[in-house]
Structure formats: structure tokens, C-alpha cells
Amino acid sequence: MAGILVAYHSRTGHTRRAAERFAALVGADLTEIRPRAPERYRGAIGLVRAAWGARRARPCAIEPMEAPIERYELVVVATPIWAGHVTPPVRAFLKANRDRLADYATLYTHGGGQSEAGEDMARLCDRSPRAVVDLRNREEGTPAYDDKLAAFVRELAVAPPG
């Protein structure tokens, strides 16, 4: 089995940057969870659709994954939190791949507020994640943000590359 895969979905770039940062810290592979119709989530109307789909727990059609998920010891699923829930693309990814995940952890990005994303993920995977990191968008680029990522790495007991 290979090491770590970071599978992420990002609408605005916050989650993509967090996923890239984490992957660089631990030498993980990176793959994007892409909706088949990304234009549905663009702009103000797209934001409303995104929140509505997340709140209603509706998955959406996603592009086939490029990475062979079952070959990884750990998959870190990185998702923004929309309306307190995981995104429809991440929901679709987990429904399609939960039996192929040897182990998983979660990386959330959000603007703040209450969330049921943790419960969503555990329910979709039929088990709790190995570790969780919760990153606020407004903390991006601050020492607090870096400290949270470092603690996540320690919790996963992953040695940095090199």
C-alpha cells in the first residue's frame, strides 16, 4: 500500500490551499474531487445551490477519480462546510468509495458556525475518522492555522518527508 492521499473539493480555493499545504507537509499525493457540472456552484446562485444541496444531503455527479484510492493506507478527505454539512461532491465521493478506504481522516474548512459535517462523514463512511482538523477560512496564513495543521500531522503520527 502507498502512503497518504489527500482527496479534496474546493469551490473558492480555501480547501484547495489547505489540502495542498497539508500534502506538502507530509509528502502526500493530491487529487481533486470534481463535480461533473462545476458551473452549478459558481456565482451567487451557485452559492445558494451549494448550500441547498449540502443541507438536503444530496450527492451530485462527480468526475472519475484519477488516484487508485484502495492503494492508500490513509485518505485525508478535505471539504469545505456548506450550510453546516459536507459538500455534495464529497458526499458522492464517500458514498462511492467508503468500502475502498483503508483508513480516513478529515480536513474541514469553513467560515464559522455550527456544523454537522463530522456526523455526516462518520455516517457516510460507517465509522469515525482517524483524526479531524477544523480550519477557519479567516485564520488562513496565521500561526494558529499552521499550529492546527501541525497538530493534525502529529495526531496522524505522520513523519514529514525528507
UniProtKB/TrEMBL annotation:
It holds the Pfam family Flavodoxin_4. The keyword Coiled coil does not apply. Keywords: Flavoprotein, FMN. Residues 4-96 form the Flavodoxin-like domain. GO terms for molecular function: FMN binding. PANTHER family: EXPORTED PROTEIN-RELATED (PTHR39201), FLAVODOXIN-LIKE DOMAIN-CONTAINING PROTEIN (PTHR39201:SF1). This is Flavodoxin-like domain-containing protein. It comes from Salinarimonas ramus.
